[in-house]
């Protein structure tokens, strides 16, 4: 006999809501609680307070670029598996195949309402937009914020000087990026065009949509997954006019202040809706800091920029709050990877992860809740695009390819370089000759990874739909 509507609603209300705020290119050293804040020109009181109310990770790891990290979050799979290992170049088939099962699809299957706002970066074709990949609603852009600069390339000003070539950007040659509103089962509706003016108000729009979604579902007693894909602090780093000049320390600091305030709006919406105790809030970043002048970010104690395998690229801020379940004020330096969010959030919702494919993430719920002292992850292989560049294991790292800045040429090392990440935060000293035993556990990660690629052949970048997995090789 089917459950009555009241029983279904009661069962659903027991499931915790999930709000995942993913900052864009926010370096390790930006937030006050990670040693930034006023040192970067703007305090971050709301995010700092969130950290004191839950768990803060010092060794949360992401992939080296935007699309790969977002793919890893959505699928629980390293991006090399799904053909999303690099930011796509214009003109190619991009994004996740429809064969992938996203976390939004898993949560939808458990009765969650799912919403996403901001940059998707996992497919530009209509079928591959968020509402084709498990989300009930979406507001944002399919690709990336730097396309906002196209309309300014022929303007003569201090930030974007003229290139001195009449063959500048032309909308008839390459169309501007659309801003969409979309609902599952309906054709996406273009509500704007991404230009510099629209860029200024994107964060406000993202926040307003997220707040409305939280309020609506709280009123209805429906569990929800809110994926807030923040536009801050991706280049061009430009604040909303409401925040321009607020810090007196320039655009970058103003944007940091705006990001903190927008996060506060979302936290206030959760509190005011009376659902704070039954809502998991996660604040994280998809990448290390920006490397492009004049928007360079800060990597804190680490070396490098994103688009590399340095710690500055791989380590990102991560805060998780779940009142009564995750002990407040917890700090850990254990390794956690963004792929781990997939099985962890699935476990929270009572969903089962797929068994017909490789899932690289591990469930970290018991670790987060303080039921065990350490993470369930010892290490991972680190790719930059399609290059296996390094491997991490506990407090050690082995580099196969060295690249410090995204604009540097990657150099294949004659011998792998082993770094002690506790004594050498800048990754300057190779200790391999003194601790050659480390090669065994670290290379095991590599060999196991390579074996899994044989068992589950990876999807090639640019693969169109429909996709059928190749026969696995044992």
Automatic annotation (TrEMBL):
Names of required cofactors: Ca(2+)
GO molecular function per UniProt: arylsulfatase activity; metal ion binding
InterPro entries: Alkaline_phosphatase_core_sf, Sulfatase, Sulfatase_N
Record domain Sulfatase N-terminal: where: 16-350
Keywords carried by this UniProt record: Calcium, Hydrolase, Metal-binding, Signal
CDD domains cross-referenced by the UniProt entry: ARS_like
Pfam families in alphabetical order: Sulfatase
Keyword Methyltransferase carried by entry: no
Membrane-spanning parts: none
Family: Belongs to the sulfatase family.
Protein name as it appears in the record: Arylsulfatase
Native source species: Stenotrophomonas terrae
